[in-house]
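Hi R.,

As promised on Friday, here is the backbone we talked about, encoded as structure tokens. Could you run it through your design pipeline when you get a chance and send me back a sequence?
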């Protein structure tokens, strides 16, 4: 590290150029120095963003190798674009700003391009991304992986790190493999706790940097308390915000509580504590007198895990504020993405999904339902609008009516099956429904759900109509084309009295997609079908049937988090005691794994699907953008006395909403 500091000059964020300093992030000295060890074959570093991990383990390592211990080097980044960007933004600038480094480049122009640098001493630096072709048939002395958890899990012959480690085998003990990253893979066991025997062990995840860390000697960064002098690991759970209601003010007063005696430490001491800190491997501890005791774990990998509290370029205020904002988003919308981001990126920790941490049993949900007091068949106070949702089964439509209120609080109002068609057999009995074969069977959704109204539970005689229906578009062969045909039929739907109505604005087909391209997106409207368009042969022709793609994993996460909430408020799920018993069983039929929500026992799960359809439908309608108290809600989502859509009694008209929904709609019903 000292050698790199002598030769490396870096461009700072303000545009100035200065020498690389080891004093800014002293916790990086030992991990960087281990890269020169002949006793280890790999260095693994887990840490948050803004901790100087890339500067120390990529830039400084490269400078040391070029100037002190040359050997062919491969540096790998998650994508080709990122590899090229690092070459231009970091490697080229390091050459330009560091005479001792840039002066060693080969003088020949063809030896210096974006992905390859050749030096006068014969060393070659290759920059690439983790694919079989990039890693195959290349021998290196040094290989490094930056942002490892953003890379593919398998590149054909194993993980990128395993394949990269094989590429340095020819160098023997002189070779070195390195991986650094913030963790991105979720914890897979909600009941896991570190054992007293292995307190430095990381939680179980299926892939990535945490797996590599556990294979190593498991160093953790420790500080001595400035008051009681006991050593401890600075982690996010030790931060204590102020008691102000305003989160900005509360975050600004964040302090750290020593876990031994509760000593309160202010942020201004962080730089000093880092300068006095030290790494302890699994099996080691430090006395109050600074004496290292214990036998360190032995491994060919030197592995390190730094938490965000110690990160040089992140304040405790920003750590706490990001977390508080993410919690507000979660409580308001049920989305865990902001929480996952701040835990992974800012705190430097793997994330435990709330849905996994607090999974309910069917009996627990059934017991909780006894607390609900509204009248069966009526709409309870708090419901602003009703969504109908339909799951397609082989011989029936499984339907629910779900009421939605402020903060996406929701009520299960109704659950029923449409199982008999209007088709008759030879004895004059109704035949069973067959959604995959008979388009006319779909017409029953109009009378029994689209046109359905529910009386308000206020003895006024007013009724609330189903605002919109969201129907599954998949299932056995034949369901999807019938679903598309039914949507088209709704354009001129003939009622029993002979009238024609356009019901398309009150109906959307949905499709669960756990692998949406935009992993953070929950709802996306697409037009996949072109069979009824004259221009269907043209490239990029848009279909005439809109379908909502729903990120089933994220939306089910939110539903399960709603079910786990004990206190009434945003996202709370109201399940009535008169619900059929199978409703409670279906809500807990699936299990959250690293791959997503799965149903290995193939238990009935219709209700969890219906609930996430409704959650996606409410987001499609724009509910997440209406404010904490829904002050920006459209007229059809206003309180009962202001809602013009109620029937049975005139109500005061609500003002027209001027703020558009975040999802673009042409239909005034959705505005």
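Update: got your reply. Pasting your designed sequence below so it's all in one thread:
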């Amino acid at each position: 590290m000292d050698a790199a500091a002598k030769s490396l000059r870096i461009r700072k964020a303000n545009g100035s150029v200065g020498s690389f300093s080891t004093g800014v992030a002293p916790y990086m000295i030992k991990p960087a120095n281990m890269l020169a060890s002949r006793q280890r074959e790999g260095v693994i570093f887990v840490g948050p963003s803004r901790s100087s991990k890339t500067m120390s383990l990529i830039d400084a390592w490269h400078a040391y190798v070029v100037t002190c211990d040359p050997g062919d080097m491969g540096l790998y980044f998650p994508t080709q674009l990122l590899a090229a960007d690092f070459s231009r933004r970091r490697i080229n600038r390091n050459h330009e700003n560091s005479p001792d480094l840039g002066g060693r480049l080969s003088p020949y122009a063809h030896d210096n391009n974006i992905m390859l640098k050749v030096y006068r001493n014969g060393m070659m630096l290759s920059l690439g991304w983790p694919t079989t072709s990039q890693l195959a048939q290349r021998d290196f002395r040094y290989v490094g992986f930056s942002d490892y958890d953003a890379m593919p899990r398998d590149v054909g012959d194993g993980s990128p790190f395993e394949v990269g480690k094989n590429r340095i085998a020819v160098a023997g003990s002189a070779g070195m493999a390195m991986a650094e990253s913030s963790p991105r893979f979720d914890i897979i066991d909600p009941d896991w706790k570190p054992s007293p025997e292995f307190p430095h062990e990381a939680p179980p995840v299926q892939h990535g940097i945490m797996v590599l860390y556990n294979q190593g000697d498991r160093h953790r960064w420790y500080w001595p308390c400035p008051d009681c002098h006991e050593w401890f690991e600075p982690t996010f759970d030790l931060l204590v915000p102020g008691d102000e209601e305003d989160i900005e003010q509360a975050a600004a007063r964040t302090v750290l509580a020593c876990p031994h005696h509760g000593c309160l430490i202010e942020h201004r001491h962080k730089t000093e504590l880092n300068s006095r800190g030290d790494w302890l491997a699994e099996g080691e501890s430090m006395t109050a007198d600074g004496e290292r005791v214990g036998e360190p774990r032995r491994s060919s990998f030197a592995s390190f895990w730094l938490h965000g509290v110690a990160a040089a370029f992140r304040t405790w205020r920003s750590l706490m504020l990001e977390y508080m904002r993410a919690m507000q988003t979660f409580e308001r919308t049920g989305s865990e993405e902001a929480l996952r981001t701040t835990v992974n990126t800012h705190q430097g920790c793997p994330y435990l999904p709330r849905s996994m941490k607090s999974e309910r049993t069917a009996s627990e949900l059934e017991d909780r339902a006894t607390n609900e007091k509204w009248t069966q068949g009526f709409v309870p106070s708090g419901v602003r609008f009703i969504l109908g949702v339909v799951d397609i089964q082989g011989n029936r439509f499984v339907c629910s009516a779900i009421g939605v209120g402020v903060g996406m609080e929701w009520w299960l109002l109704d659950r029923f099956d449409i199982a008999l068609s209007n088709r008759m057999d030879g004895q004059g009995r109704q035949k069973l429904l067959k959604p995959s074969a008979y388009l006319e069977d779909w017409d029953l959704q109009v009378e029994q759900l689209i046109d359905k109204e529910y009386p308000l539970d206020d003895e006024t005689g007013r009724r609330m109509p189903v605002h919109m229906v969201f129907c599954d578009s998949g299932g056995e062969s034949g369901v999807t084309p019938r679903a598309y045909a039914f949507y088209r039929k709704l354009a001129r739907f003939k009622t029993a009295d002979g009238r024609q109505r356009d019901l398309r604005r009150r109906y959307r087909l949905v499709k669960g997609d756990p692998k949406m391209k935009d992993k953070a997106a929950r709802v996306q409207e697409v037009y996949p079908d072109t069979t009824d368009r004259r221009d269907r042969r043209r490239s990029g022709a848009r279909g005439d049937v809109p379908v909502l793609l729903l990120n089933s994993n994220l939306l089910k996460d939110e539903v399960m988090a709603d079910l786990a909430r004990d206190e009434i408020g945003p996202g709370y799920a109201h399940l009535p005691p008169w619900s059929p018993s199978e409703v409670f069983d279906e809500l807990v039929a699936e299990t959250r794994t690293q791959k997503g929500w799965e149903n290995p026992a193939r238990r009935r799960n219709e209700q969890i699907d219906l609930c996430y359809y409704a959650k996606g439908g409410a987001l499609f309608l724009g509910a997440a953008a209406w404010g904490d108290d829904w002050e920006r809600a459209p007229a059809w989502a206003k309180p009962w006395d202001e809602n013009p859509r109620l029937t049975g009694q005139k109500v005061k008209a609500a003002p027209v909403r001027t703020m558009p929904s975040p999802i673009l709609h042409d239909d005034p019903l959705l505005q």
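One thing I noticed while checking it: The radius of gyration is 30 Å.

Thanks again,
M.
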